[in-house]
Amino acid sequence: MYIHLGEDVSISDKNIIGIFDMEKTTIGKSTNRFFERATKEGRVVNVSYEMPKSFIVCQEDGREIIYISQISVSTLKKRSEKGC
Fold this sequence. Notes:
This protein is of the alpha+beta class and 84 residues long. 31% of the residues lie in helices and 38% in strands. The chain has one domain.
């Protein structure tokens, strides 16, 4: 099953490691270091240029990829349950 993250981006639910609220989780030092490293390594994909609400950590082809989405965690959860 695929989950639509916004714009023209959909990912397989089998690849998802976690879905996180951007506002609640990015205040921590370890999360900031995680984002800095991933950005330097080219592993961050910004799905939209609107205000980000969530980030999705996936395992794709042996690499962790972080998708930044304008869609809320609750909406993404509903989509995963409905198969959208």
